[in-house]
User: Which sequence fits this backbone?
């Protein structure tokens, strides 16, 4: 499989009293490579990602885009081994086989119309917001979960404890599925925010955990419209972000009844929707 990190030559400069000194030193970077997702041999998406957990990423993408309804819709996934510059396999193509009759043709066509997404923004290049407002398969608004704010403010640090690639590079995002009492179930990393979320949702689907009712999705960056949509598609009632939300993310969270909290940095957080879920179970 591909490498998660790589070493490159670099030069560190230190400026002291207006004078700069230079020292050559190798640096560790997060690897970014394209992954092509095919369904029945047809390209559905190409995303720039950190190699690893590719099957989780492919399944999570198909689920959160509404192409498939559940993990059982997928009969199999395999890497198509194209060759890199050195003649070794790149593992940069995943071919997905669906069971007969599975797969939304409309969602598949919508996803296929925009076959390239960057590692920073999975919405870029799509025709518009309407193309990704997929009808939700789970009633997120009816989820009765309650989460103590005192638990939520601890989640970024708990997520960080599982970010091995970030510790080495400082250049990857993470997404984690947590129980209401703050226990981590699954964590995935990637150079792309949306890829990290697809990976962790795909991993949950492969483990038979969907819908993720009664759980919290903690992300290491900001809360975008797409991340909010992906959380809702997976049945997650709470999305917690370290950084700011966008206006569209807040609007979607309010529309579907998802609790969105952002700027989550102990001892504070800001709630933007469904604040009624914030509190102890007893309250």
Assistant:
């Amino acid at each position: 499989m591909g490498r998660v990190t790589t070493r490159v030559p670099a030069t560190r400069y230190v400026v002291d009293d207006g004078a700069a000194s230079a020292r050559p030193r190798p640096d560790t970077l997060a690897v970014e490579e394209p992954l092509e997702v095919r369904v029945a041999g047809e390209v559905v998406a190409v995303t720039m990602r950190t190699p690893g957990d590719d099957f989780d990423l492919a399944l999570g993408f198909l689920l959160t885009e509404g192409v498939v309804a559940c993990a059982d819709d997928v009969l199999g996934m395999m890497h198509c081994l194209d060759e890199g510059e050195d003649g070794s396999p790149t593992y940069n193509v995943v071919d997905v086989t669906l069971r007969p009759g599975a797969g939304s043709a409309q969602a598949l066509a919508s996803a296929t119309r925009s076959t390239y997404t960057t590692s920073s923004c999975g919405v870029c290049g799509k025709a518009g917001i309407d193309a990704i407002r997929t009808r939700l398969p789970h009633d997120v608004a009816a989820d009765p979960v309650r989460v103590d704010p005192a638990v939520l403010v601890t989640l970024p640090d708990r997520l960080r404890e599982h970010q091995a690639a970030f510790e080495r590079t400082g250049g990857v995002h993470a997404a984690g599925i947590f129980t209401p009492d703050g226990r981590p179930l699954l964590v995935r990393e990637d150079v792309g925010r949306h890829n990290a979320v697809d990976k962790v949702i795909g991993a949950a689907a492969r483990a038979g955990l969907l819908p993720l009712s009664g759980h919290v999705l903690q992300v290491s960056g900001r809360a975008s419209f797409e991340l909010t949509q992906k959380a809702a598609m997976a049945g997650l009632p709470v999305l917690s972000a370290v950084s700011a939300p966008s206006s569209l993310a807040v609007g979607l969270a309010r529309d579907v009844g998802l609790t969105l909290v952002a700027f989550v940095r102990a001892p504070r957080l800001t709630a933007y929707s469904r604040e009624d879920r914030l509190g102890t179970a007893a309250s």
